[in-house]
Amino acid sequence: MATQSLTLNNGYKMPLVGLGSWQVTSPEECKDTIRAALDAGYRHIDTAYAYQNEAFIGEVLQEYFKAGKLRREDIFVTTKLWVTYHEKDRVPLCIVESLQKLQLDYVDMYLIHLPVGLRETGKGKPFPLDENNTPAFQDVLLTDTWKGMEQVARCGQAKSIGVSNFNMEQIERICKIAEIIPATNQVECHLYLQQEKLFQFLKEKGITVTAYSPLGSPTRPAHILKEGAPRVLDDPVAKDLATKYKRSVGQILLRYLVQRGMIVIPKSSNPSRILENVKVFDFELSGEDMSKLSAQDKKLRFFTILEFKGHSEYPFDEPL
Ligand code: NAP
Asked: If both were cysteines, with which of 13, 155, 217, 289 could 213 make a disulfide (CB 3.0 to 4.6 Å apart)?
């Protein structure tokens, strides 16, 4: 099963469907999940320093390389710079650690995970706390962090670099000083948070959108799971279209984003759903059905990360 790719602003190709791996932290579950995804035809894995599973992913990749089932150039791996490494001189420390764990010489995509920086205090991981038990905010110029990212790209540790959870104003600031324009902005995006304004803004700059939580993250942790929030997977229009196209609701939700031109990174640890989620290239939603789905937007952000609200780079106050 071949997944389709899009071409980034630097000429590299990025598979449109990748496997999300947040909250897949137990070693055996993680390794089984990665094996199931590779066997199902996934050629793109999304991880992060903060997910604490890079070492397990690296183990499975080595297993597949050694068995001749996969070559390094066949697989697209994304990982992310954690918030405690925003200072320009600390950026290389974080990527080196990720590469060691992944047992790779380079990643295909390296992202600044969040625009908000925190100071390493030794207390409260992965979100360090200060002496008052509040997040240890650190103000590092994002443009400096970006210079560190460019250095990572220049020395070949990442083929492409980008950002995550950045708003338009932050992207604009980066683009003003960038020698390398970000290749993607990975943001929350699903039927109830369609991000059309940000998507069009980025498109004009040649920056792709990678949609995280494309199924609405139904098993996100309790502090993010707002009480009474609607479940994207229960959307009535998506359900009707699933019946019409003889597909699962998940496939309709993912196809909708892919057909708009976005990259999607659904997470599943269930082999049949892993397979289902990558099978979105053998059907097309009609223009009328695309419009029905776009009318379902609620501009509803689940990941508001309110703990960071007081930080000067808190990204989510910009109108949607
Ligand atoms: P998601 O992919 O929207 O949803 C994952 C959940 O949906 C899992 O509980 C999964 O359960 C279930 N599921 C998967 N396929 C399904 C299907 N076809 N039908 C019904 N249920 C299905 O949520 P997410 O994990 O929040 O987001 C995806 C990835 O985006 C993450 O894993 C991570 O890599 C990335 N992410 C990035 C950021 C960031 O700040 N950059 C933030 C959040 C997420 P089973 O495992 O049981 O199938």
From this structure: 217
- Distance in angstroms (rounded) separating the CA atoms of residues 192 and 188: 10
Query: Distance from the CA of 147 to the center of ligand 1, in angstroms?
Result: 31
Task: Give the 3-state secondary structure of 214-255.
Answer: CCCCCCCCCCCCCCCCCCHHHCHHHHHHHHHHCCCHHHHHHH
Determine how many CB atoms are found less than 10 A away from the CB of residue 282.
9
CA angle 104, 181, 215 (to 5 degrees): 70
Which residue positions in the chain have pLDDT lower than 70?
A: 1-2
β-strands 13-15, 5-7: how paired? Answer: antiparallel
Written as one string, the DSSP assignment of 99-130 is HHHHT-S-EEEEEE--S-EE---SSSSSS-B-
| SS3 of residue 294 by DSSP | helix
Q: What is the DSSP letter of 73?
A: G
Query: For the segment 287-319, what is each residue's pLDDT rounded down to a tens digit?
Result: 999 999 999 999 999 999 999 999 999 999 999
Token pair in block for residue 122: 């030794």
- Give the binding-site residues of ligand 1, using a 6 Å CB cut-off: 20-22, 46, 113, 164-165, 186, 212-220, 233, 248, 250, 265-270, 273, 276-277, 303
Mutate to test the pocket of ligand 1, among 267, 308, 314 (most ligand atoms within 8 A of CB): 267
- The string of pLDDT tens digits covering residues 75-129 is 999 999 999 999 999 999 999 999 999 999 999 999 999 999 999 999 988 899 9
12 is catalytic: no
51, 110, 192, 212: which one is catalytic?
Answer: 51
- Decide the pairing of beta strands 5-7 and 117-118: unpaired
Atom of ligand 1 nearest to the CA of 46: 34
